[in-house]
Design goal:
Helix content is 80%, strand content 0%. By secondary structure, the chain is mainly α. It has one domain. Helix 1 packs antiparallel against helix 2. The longest helix has 25 residues. The protein starts with a helix and ends with a helix.
């Protein structure tokens, strides 16, 4: 999401403030997309994007909240 905002901002700045031909602007944007791809591959290799959703701490906290809501509902 951040990269999309960055890309749109860069595109807007290039279109409104530069006297570059549209072909050069498109080439610049293609280079930015390649940099984003390289960054995504680095993150993929580091496995920084992975979140363990089955971790017992998170499940236990969620289960406790659900059980509390169920108990409150039974009391009413």
């Amino acid at each position: 999401m951040v990269f999309t905002i960055y890309t749109l901002s860069l595109l807007t700045i290039l279109i409104f403030t530069s006297n570059l031909d549209i072909v050069y602007i498109i080439l610049i944007m293609e280079r930015v997309d390649r940099l984003k791809t390289i960054w995504a591959l680095i993150i993929l290799k580091w496995k920084k994007w992975v979140k363990n959703l089955t971790e017992t701490k998170n499940i236990t906290e969620f289960d406790n909240k659900v059980n509390k809501i169920k108990r409150n509902a039974k009391e009413i």
